[in-house]
Structures are given as C-alpha cells and as structure tokens.
Amino acid sequence: MLIDNHNRVLNYLRLAVTDRCNLRCNYCMPSEGINFVKNDQLLSIAELKRVASLSVAQGIDKIRITGGEPFVRKDVMELMRYMSALDGLNDISITTNATLIGPHIDELKALGIKNINVSLDAIDKATFERITRRPHYDTVQENLIRLITEGFNVRINFIVLEGQNEQDILSILEVMRHYPVSVRFLEEMPFNGGSKQFEHIKWNYKAIFEHIKERYPDIKKLVSPITSTSINYQINGHQSTFGIIPSFSRTFCGSCNRLRITATGDIITCLYGKPKANLRDLLRQSSDDEVVKKLLQQTVSNRAKTGFEAQQEHQAVFDSSMTSIGG
Ligand code: SAM
What we know:
By secondary structure, the chain is α/β, with parallel strands linked by helices.
C-alpha cells in the first residue's frame, strides 16, 4: 500500500498519457501552446501499462486517464482495454475535453468505463470558443449529450474565470437541470504556462456558492466521500447536482489520496509542488518491477502536508501549464 509521511493512503492515480491538447484554453496555456515534448519522451503504451499494473499492485484502485487531451493519442484505447482487464482496479475514469471521444464512446461503454469528466467552461458558444480558442463547441455538445444519454456517469468541470464566463454559471445549471449530470465549478489555479500570475481570485468557492444560492435559495447539501475534493449540492427540482471544488483555496489537502504521474513519467505528489522523481528512465533501464515500486514508495513517503507547503518549492512564479502536469 502507498502511505505517505502524514499517514494518508494513496489509492487514486491520475495518469497522463500526453501533454498535447487540441484546444488552447486561455487559462491553461498561451495561444501559441507550450513546448510540447517529443514523442520519445512520452511514456509508451507498454510503459503506461506497466505503471498501471505496478500501481495497482501497490494498492491503487482508481486510475484517471488525463493529459493533455487523452484522445489526441491514437493508441490510448489500447491502454483502456488493458486497464479494464486489470484485477484490483475498481474505477477507471477519464478527463477529456470531449472533442475527440465520439468514435470511442461505444467501445468505452463495452469496456465498462463509465466515469467521464468533461471540461466545459461555457454554455454559450461564443464564450466557449473565445476561451478555448478553437471552433469545437458543436462537437463537444454532441458528445456530451451522447455520453449522458448513453448512461455514462458524467461530471462537467467548469473553471470559473473572472471576466470570462461568470454569466454562464447560472445558465449551465439551468440547461443541465434536466440531465443526470454533476456540474462542478472549480476555482482557477495559476497553472497557465506562465501567461498570467495571480495571488487572489475573485471567484473562490464561497463566492461561487453565494452566487448560486442567490438565484436558487433552495439548495440541499449532499453527503460526499471523505476524499472528495468537491462539496456537493442539489438544487430543489433539478435532476442534476452541482459541486464546488476549492482547487485554489485548498481546503481538502488533509484527506488527499491522489498521486499524479505525468506523460513523461514525472511523479507528482501534490499539484502545487514540483515533480519529485521520474519513472521513465527507470522503466527503460530496469525490468525489475521491485525497483520501480520502491521508487514509488520512497517518493510518497516525502510528501508535503498541504498545497500551500508544496507551493514553497516554486521560487516566485508558477510557469507550468496544467496540460503538462496532468490536471
Ligand atoms: N484535456 C483534458 C480536459 O480538457 O479535460 C484533460 C487535461 S486538462 C489539463 C484537465 C483539467 O484541468 C481540465 O478540466 C481543465 O479545465 C483544468 N485546468 C487547466 N488549467 C487550469 C487552471 N489554470 N486552473 C484550473 N483548472 C485548470
């Protein structure tokens, strides 16, 4: 089992399969993109399979596939097939922008992979295309509705961005009220490829809640798992639920059960900290699984207590992008 130096059990791995993305969300990276890595620096599918299997052998029972955009990687379904047959892995989830998932929906369903987080920061087309800098709104809507109606557990991730999409907070709740979906509002984080620095946000979790509460006073708080990062609610009369994630305020570190491995094999023990080790060379040099497992164990045993502590590892500024960290 992976247990950190603060006695937290890590059973949830966020595994990135690429740093590339076909969108250019303005809060994630500059319009010209970032310096994406060369293909040979990415973990191969065989290496990703090995990481998945060794992690599960150490008690990881939930893996979320992320990126970059996972479906820009042509061979990603091979990994999905492998993971769906992995004993001990109880939950396979995906985070996607839903632009390229369409052709894979049937197979994902057949594999029993049902938990899909769709990033969607606007319900208005012009706002969506201004934020993402790409004209893919209709495709995303089509895939989103298909995922919901085909019975996937869909959660929408909506980053609340000052001056950009505040007007869509209530509209997205209104549109989604008829669907069995969870809309989760996230605080903006400073991982945007260095394009903007900030120390405060207007739309923190309290401001988001107050804004929703003003329009919908009849809100019920839902019971959430202890390791949940979202505080979850339901508006009376809505089929959908909503959640708020204090991703910048970081109120949930005490129960954090997550480990991240980036597409290049970096092990990240806190989103706000620096990578703590790299697995890629070890995977390429050694066929001894025990050596790899030992590195994972060692890495988690030196974990910052909170995101605020981890943030001290950065000198003054964050210059990384969520697409490289595996958001
Ligand atoms: N391409 C996939 C997607 O769009 O969901 C997965 C990778 S993306 C980097 C993962 C998540 O990180 C998305 O929900 C995205 O909105 C979020 N994200 C990216 N930059 C962020 C930032 N600066 N603050 C908060 N969330 C961010």
